[in-house]
Fold these 2 entries.
Entry 1:
Amino acid sequence: MTSPLTAWYDALAAGDLVTAAQNLTEDSVLHVPGRSSNTGTYTGRDAVVGFVAHAAEVTGGTLDLTVHRVLDDGEWGVALCTYTATRPDRAHPLENNLAHVARLRDGRIAESWLHSRDQYAVDEFWGEQAPQEVAS
């Protein structure tokens, strides 16, 4: 049986948010760490999918995920991933290693926590752009 995490990432890679959403419980919760504009707790299937859709929009479709390994015992799962993205308003692209820890229920993702290799770089990339200095 395919892990819901594998199915989730396969659907995201195909750009199929409808199929991705089917791998979440209706009351799914996503915890996003950090201090940027996308930080927070997303509650409900629509909110979790909205988080992903917003990330794709902000990056102009450049968000690319590589899944290295999925570990799943039926109750808990972990996806080890690398994602890259660029933004037109950022000088540098982001490359981040991610551990996506998930509590599973009834063959779906019920609750997730994202853990980044470099949270400072993630916050800088996803956060609001710093005001530009104006020469006088």
Entry 2:
Amino acid sequence: MTEQVEMVNGKTLVDKVVTFGRENVYMGLGVLDVVQEHAQKWFDRGMEYRHTLVERGEKMAKDNRVRVNDLVEMPQTVAKDTVKKANETLDKYSEQVLTRVHLPTVEQIETMTKKVGSVERKLDKVIKENAAAQQI
């Protein structure tokens, strides 16, 4: 089967598509050249003003040190407060869970340990007194 190629203004449709594609490639290269040229100009200009910009930046940082410090310290304070609240909440809920399942907390264990130590000392004292009484 032979295909018919449509002719428009003396050119085939394929020729028009190829021409259009070629023009788009050239247009893209032209845009690339313009962007590269402007980028190079900005880079060169930046290198000329580099020292001046550094000085201005240092002056601005010095003049606005309080504002910069506030901007830096505020999130740090918020983070510290959040961590503190999270720890308090965790401690509170872990104590509630331990109480619910009838497990002693650290404070309760320390109190019981002190009481056992006290009872042990009293018992040792009573044992020594009984041993001394039996020797007499």
